Amino acid sequence: MAVLRAEYGAELADGPRAFFEPLRHGCPWCGSVLIGGHLLTRDLIQHKPGRFRIDRCRSCGHLFQNPRLNARGLDFYYRDFYDRLGEQQLDAMFGGRTRSYRRRAESVRPHLGGVKRWLDVGTGHGHFCEAARTVLPDVVFDGLDRSEGVETAERLGRVERGFRGGFTELAGELAGEYDAVSLFHYLEHCPEPLRELEAARTSLRPGGHLVVEVPDPESRYARLLGRWWLPWLQPQHLHLMPVGNLRGALSDLGFTVVAEQHRSAHERVDLVAAVWLALEGAAPRDDLPWLPPVGPVHRALRGAALLAGVPALAAAALLDQAVAPFAGRLGLCNAYRLVARKD
Among 261, 324, 247, which residue's Cα sits nearest to residue 109? Predict the structure, then answer.
């Protein structure tokens, strides 16, 4: 912790402003200059310093971080979330979602035809591929990710081949290899999502299928819960795309959307996550290397504060389960999934 604290102290010497690109004055999706502030928030999960603004395009409805993180900022805010300090926790969380991954594979299976080779982009430690093989035992899964987790996935046999790097840089050498490419909660993290869709088209054979799953910014929960809605996930989520925008982009790239799914893409976490984020915001901070050090009394107060919130968390979790069967009709689904065929 002492080593990490010194490392973060040096990086923060110039302040968080060094982590951002210049402010944009037009929509990155449609180019319209009719944009305005939609949400101002902080890092509610890691509590790293900085304030983050999400703007909304009044022409197409696209939502985007503005100003956007630069390469240095992305490295700073991602560090210790998926790797190092956060690696074990995140690996355990994703590893515990086996049933969710199987349901995802079952939902798209009827639309994919005779898929043989599948590339999962943003695969992390390959947990989806491992679970999906129980649903699609004849499919060979490869994984691609910027993090070292993809190398772990290959070593553990969760993917046949693990490619480490950026999708847009590697797509050329993967051209036409795959019957299916999946971008599960990946596009919203990308600085240039349209280029990622082009890379997916390059990697697919003619007639192959692209599966895209992203948070739904048109969910009523986004308005009802405000900054406590988990899918805002600042500063990691750079773009949030209404479903009409993504359908249009896929059509422009030569895809035909064959399925649009909302209810099966919904995760039953909105209320319990909102309560947890609110508790985290109110409780004393944990001992983290980008914050001032804390002692045992501080940690005891934090534990007591979080323990006091357990009844609220339990009630919120039960309500999430009760509302889920009606989420589609009520417009509360927090994500959507598109399956598109490359023509």
Answer: 261
Both structure tokens of 227: 């900054």
Residue 1, pLDDT score: 84
How far apart CA 58 and CA 31 sit, in angstroms, is: 11
Q: CA-CA distance, 89 to 80, in Å (whole number)?
A: 11
Report how far residue 75's alpha carbon sits from residue 151's, in angstroms, rounded to the nearest whole number.
19
Structure tokens at 22: 């210049």
- How sure is the predictor about 312, in pLDDT bands with cuts at 50, 70 and 90? very high
Whole-number pLDDT of residue 96: 63
Distance CA(308)–CA(301), nearest Å, equals: 11
* Dihedral (CA of 64, 69, 74, 76) sign: negative
Tell me whether residue 148 is exposed, middle or buried, using C-beta atoms within 10 angstroms of its C-beta: 0 to 12, 13 to 18, 19 or more.
Answer: middle
| Rounded-to-integer distance, Cα 228 and Cα 221, Å | 10
Q: In the chain, which residue ranges form alpha helices assigned H by DSSP?
A: 2-11, 71-78, 87-95, 98-108, 127-132, 149-155, 167-170, 193-203, 220-225, 243-252, 270-282, 296-308, 310-323, 327-330
Pairing of strands 140-145, 162-164: parallel
User: At residue 48, does pLDDT exceed 90?
Assistant: yes
- Provide the pLDDT for residue 92: 59
Distance between CA atoms of 204 and 341, rounded to whole angstroms? 9
Q: Are 332 and 270 in contact, with CB atoms under 8 Å apart?
A: yes
Mean pLDDT of 66-87: 86
Structure-token pair, residue 220: 């009523």
| Gap between the Cα atoms of 24 and 49, Å rounded | 22
- CA trace torsion 103, 150, 136, 269 (10° rounding): 0
Summarize the confidence of residues 180-193 as an average pLDDT. Answer: 97
- Answer for the pair 23, 66: CB distance below 8 angstroms, yes or no: yes
State the CB neighbour count (10 A cutoff) for residue 240: 26
Whole-prediction pTM: 0.93
Does 84 score more than 90 pLDDT?
no
Predicted pLDDT of residue 287 = 86
